[in-house]
Amino acid sequence: MIPKTQNLKRLASDCARRFAGMLLLVALCASSARAQATPTLSLDSSPALFGVLAAMNSCGYDEELALSNPLRAQIRAEVAQASKSGAAKESLNRMCRFYVDHMQADPTRQLAQYVSLALNLDDTFAPRGKEADLPPDAVYVLGIVPLLQSYYANAGLQKIWTAHRSAYDALVEQYHAPVSNLLLATDIYLKQPLSSYLGRGFTVYVEPLSAPGHVNARVYGDNYYLVVSPTPSGLKLDQIRHTYLHYILDPLIAKRAITLTRLRPLLQSVSDAPLADSYKQDIALLVTESMIRAVEARTLKAPEAARAEAMEKSMSEGFILTRYFYEQLAAFEKTPTGFRDVYGDWLRELDIRKEMKQASQIRFASSATQEVVRPARELTLVDLAEKQLANGNPELAQKLARQALDENQGDAGRATFALARASTMQGDMKGAQLYFERTLTKSSDPKITAWSHIYLGRIADMQEDRESALKHYQAALAADDKSLDTKAAAERGIQRPYEPPQHEAKDPK
């Protein structure tokens, strides 16, 4: 029998070997047998990003060319040479006309819309999903896809990609250690357990054809994507960490609807701040960004005065809870307790009147630093309804969901599902049952279908109709939603009747 210590060492070694391109938290991996479920944290390259960025460079995208990795100039020269033939030149001209017609005045937005598109294309440059599901900025330039496919084939760009694939792999390998160490240091600082990553992904794509000063981050469900370009001196590690902190914190705040409802009055204090409107309308965003700014200030490798100055700068931009979290982190650093175990307490113990009084004394700056992380798409009425559910405001969620249905905006299944959940939170079980049943006729989304059955099963259990409950739990498993939480909830329902915990809100999830 192999000793336990040796087993754990083999486990850590196996993790490192099997995921050579992954940003593995090996120190945490070796600390628990639960590390067999490895988080999807990866540093990689993408053929779709290469193709889209090669096309942009061919059509005049020269942003920060002098600051770029030498590989960019080399590939541009080879692509230009390959584009001189008749068919390649003709397809290039057609593609570039589209590119010019869809030019944005802001170079950052120009790059962002094509990055958004590339992240939603497969290796043949075909969209991964329906047009209705694509981010709006990607839809705006979706027409370039057939032109890109033609140009890619006629210019033989696949050959160029293959020739430079090893160079891309070398860049990935070169930056593996600094990025891995950065994320590991962040986890160690927060005393973050490995198991918290299960079912979620964080991917950093290295693309030297992009301007190194423009970092693009996107969030698609539980998956976070970051596209970075190296300069001759390296990557922008601070922006990678900023996105990673969102990856850690976003799901934690989403679980605290009641606390967020209590904190919502703080939004009054930032009405005159130079923040994006999203921060002024969504307390969860304001809290999360303030927490991230506090972590960044506390971990700044500088004297205390410089760290305090960084904190005050964030306060002046409108992130009014940065000082509060900064002070909490200072005490947290001296204890063995993990971040996930204290974050909820910090939110509950926050003195709203005190923070609002302090915020009233802030002289806000004229502008705020641009956010690194961009949502996959602009928020729809259904998105806003779901956010209000997360914030513990079922009345407003209900109003927004009904408006979405009345105006035929967005996914009717999601809107009906939001109405059903709002009814459960208000204690209207009859209304909830009706809306969940309607959801099953309107939605083709496996997750929404599965959870509608789970809710209906729980309602049936509360009505002591065990036979109906079991049918719904079994239907939830048959809905083919691969999410671990969905499967676990359905299986629990099959094993024993649902009983709402005493502390649970009226929404039986």
Descriptive keywords:
globular, mainly alpha, disordered N terminus, single chain
What does this structure look like?
With 509 residues, the chain is mainly α. It is built from 24 helices and five strands. It has a five-stranded mixed sheet with strand order 1-2-4-3-5, with helices on both faces. Helix 4 packs antiparallel against helix 9, helix 9 packs across helix 10 (237-254) and helix 13 packs antiparallel against helix 14 (304-317). The protein is globular, with a radius of gyration of 25 Å. The two termini are 43 Å apart.
* Gross geometry: globular
Alpha-carbon Rg, integer: 25 Å
Q: Give the SSE string.
A: HHEHHHHHHHEEEHHHHHHHHEHHHHHHH
Strand content bin: under 5%
Count helical runs.
24
Structural class estimated from helices and strands: mainly alpha
Helix content: 55-70%
Q: Strand arrangement, largest sheet?
A: 1-2-4-3-5
Number of strands: 5
